[in-house]
Amino acid sequence: MSGETSSTVIETRGLRKEFSGRKGTRVAVADLDLTVRAGEVHGFLGPNGSGKTTTIRMLLGLASATAGEMAIFGQTVPRALPEVMARVGAVVESPKFSPNFTGRQNLRLLARSVGVGDARVDRAVETVGLTGRDRERYKTYSLGMKQRLAIAATLLKDPALLILDEPTNGLDPSGIREVREVIRGLGDAGVTVLLSSHILAEVQQVCTAATILGNGRTLASGSVAELIGTSTSQRVVTPDLAAARTALEAAGLRVTGQDGPALLVETDRPAEVTRALGEAGVWLTELNPVRADLESIFLEVTQSERLGGQIAWPTPGATDGGPA
Amino acid sequence: MRLVKVELTRLLWRRAVLVLLALAVVLPLAVLVLRVVDTRTQSFDDIVAENGSYVVDEVEGCVRHPGRYGVGGADDVTAACQRVIAGWYGNSPLDLVEEREAGGALAAILLVTMVLMLAGITFAGHDWNTGSMSNQLLFEPRRERVWLAKAVAVGLLTAALAMAVLVAFWTGVWVTASVRDLDIPAHAVSAGYKQAVLGAGFATGAAVFGYALTMLLRSTVGTLGVLFAVGFFCVVVVAGVLGLEGGVERVMPWGNFVAYAVGGYEFYDYDACVMDMSGGGCDTGETIKRSAAVLYFAVIWVVVAIPSLLSFRVRDVP
Lengths: 324, 318
Ligand SMILES: Nc1ncnc2c1ncn2[C@@H]1O[C@H](COP(=O)(O)OP(=O)(O)OP(=O)(O)O)[C@@H](O)[C@H]1O
Ligand SMILES: [Mg+2]
Description:
A: 324 residues, six-stranded mixed beta sheet, four-stranded antiparallel beta sheet, 14 strands, elongated, B: 318 residues, binds adenosine-5'-triphosphate, binds magnesium ion
């Protein structure tokens, strides 16, 4: 599988998708830069309609790009898809199979189309915990079983890259945990994963890196530690909030909001806060660091995008050397 | 080749397709049975039983005035009268030429064609209606291969079935005629088999056509709607309201189908006479030749199949 851990598995540059309908043109993906490195479990985050599914469909050749370049395993797609797809497993949006075939029949048809035998089907069915139910018709499956079947389908190919679009959608807590374990296991085995999800806690637990999307653009991207680290802020409680705000801003610190009796100040050095306030004669009653989680990052980033605000986030592309 | 096998499996696992394939066997068989029954040899008593006592009255009238019935000089007037009257009221015997040119064989080909076209439509429609096409493309991204593999699977299966059914139909007609000791015109039997092969080709073309149209429109209902609308337009608007005037029949499906299956189709172009001021013997007969019919259907087929394949290559798949 992926020997060289620094190599890029997915790369898009200036990727753009426009849908033209009766009401004019809608830009679903706007000049998106996405980089997924080998061995990463890469979270792909964004509010509803931000273009995650559209990006994934373009990568997989289901939709054509209006502009931009894409590469998988360093090969330009969609041109190289026939060679590349043998090592890519994917679930796009909701699982789609023939309702009157059994889960097993559905898998067998897909397996045979890539020359894979039935033993492989057995193994995939077992991995996702569908053994015993695989000979029932797909239409009788619950949503969770359908999701499991879709994941089983991706395992038929022995993939080096998995692209999963909300794979835990509709699963119960234990199902979510099982899928998470499967993804973790694959990640540990060296499989690169691109995981789109709304469940940020899950992404934070499973992913090593993430890209946050808004309106078809990359808003933030980097390792999960980097993303969270950059956003550490301080929670400052004083009797006179107005004076404190003036003092902090005069010292060049950014006050990002107010939380009850506290101000939120964006800095990872508490000393700056105490000094600024001390010099202005405002005394602290409470100071504690707020370690952001992915969820607050997500909300903050997507919120500022919606408000048209500017936040200095680490931008992708600054550190890498262009398309492969 | 592997893909074709997979698509054949997918076809044969589909229940709707199996039901249609069964219909493609049963319906022509039913036509054959009807034809065999309708042309059975009847005794005079059978005819009386079927038509009522006025047949007997008719015979009595004939016996009284044999001259009027053209059996004046017969030895056994009653028997001769019965033969004439039976010819009027009884079945016409099985006629291989008639059967091939205007009878059951044409009906059998049409039925097989329609049912197999439906099979092609439902096969392709299912992939779109369920959204499973996108899943298939994740395993084989070369779209033209996917399109062709499915087309070949539909073609192979329908060709085999249509051939078997239509050859069986004609064999049934031939065996019936032989058993009944009817005289069989020279070449009538081989002409029938030739038509069966041509008919199987037609049904196969129609099945792949239905498949291609559905791949283009991406919906079973949409495809049926378009076919229905075109049929409605041809039958009601063109034939019914505007009338089959001028050379319109030349571009109607029916005449071309008969021309293809039988070898030629004659129709009358009355406009030609209106234009002809010379008066008197105006020959209005026109013929569609088989070659013209082949061209007609080939053009329709290509006009749908090529855009279907090309659009499948480039359009987004939901
Ligand atoms: N086939 C289409 N035709 C027109 N517009 C489309 C089409 N598919 C997606 N869009 C639009 O593109 C935008 C991005 O949609 P997309 O499905 O990629 O979002 P998403 O990030 O996957 O959202 P979600 O989290 O809800 O799954 C949306 O505004 C959507 O309405
Ligand atoms: Mg989506």
